[in-house]
Each structure stands twice: as C-alpha cells, then as structure tokens.
Amino acid sequence: xxxxxxxxxxxxxxxxxxxxxxxxxxxxxxxxxxxxxxxxxxxxxxxxxxxxxxxxxxxxxxxxxxxxxxxxxxxxxxxxxxxxxxxxxxxxxxxxxxxxxxxxxxxxxxxxxxxxxxxxxxxxxxxxxxxxxxxxxxxxxxxxxxxxxxxxxxxxx
Length: 157
Prior knowledge:
- By secondary structure, the chain is an alpha/beta fold.
- The chain contains 6 helices and 4 strands, in the order E-H-H-H-H-H-E-H-E-E.
- The protein has a single domain, classed as 3-Layer(aba) Sandwich (Rossmann fold).
- Helices cover about 40% and strands about 20% of the residues.
- Keywords: Hydrolase, Magnesium, Metal-binding.
- Its cofactor is Mg(2+).
C-alpha cells in the first residue's frame, strides 16, 4: 500500500476542458444543450444529449475520436507518470463519467496508473448509444454533504 495517495479531479485538472462540454461542442450540439440546460439536472442532460447525438447518427466511434482530441497538457501526463513511478497511489474523483475518463486516459497511456476512479457510471448499450447515469441518485436521497460545494449527484469531499 502506498504511503502517499494523490487524488485528482478530471475536468479542468487532468484535461484542460470540461469533457461534457467538449463532446457537445465538438459534435455541434451546443445549441440544443443550451436549450435543455435550464430544464434538467446536468447528468440527466448529458444522458439526453447522448440520446440526441445517437439519433442524429453520431456513433460511439465519433465520440471516442472527439475525446481523443480533448486538450491535455503534456506535463500533466509526465506528472501522473512520475507520481506513479514514485509509488504514489493515484485516484480520480470526478463529476465527469467513466466512459469519457477511461477513453481519454487510455488514449494517453495512463489509464492503468490509477487504482480507483469515482465518477458517474456509463456504458454503451446494445444499440451503440452511450448511457450516462449519476454516481448517486439524488432524486431518491441526498448524499448528505454539508459543504454545499458538491454537485447533487456526488460528494467530492
């Protein structure tokens, strides 16, 4: 067991953007996203956007190609590798989703360096559509964080 644990956020920390916004913008769905944003919680909106993109003929391969282009500073990759090489236990706590995180980290060859990733769940269904779900179903109960800094679906403290 490592003596030092390093916990990273993902969006705007490991990558230089918000992965959700990146995919929506790069696949030219920003207008619809902005129309729907005031009407539903973020994770529900991202799930809906994946349905809309699928209905428009966008494939999971299209999403993967966009994710591979997400901006990441080369020194971040070096820093992650160096921390791992020094024996640090690397983890991610993020309000992104597992498919986006896994795709980007694998593309940069650093996926296997992380021992744990706490994020929103996601999977590709039998029709090739990406499904995204909140880490914690906030519609059933609160995650009971008293800091008021966490999103409703995930405690990051």
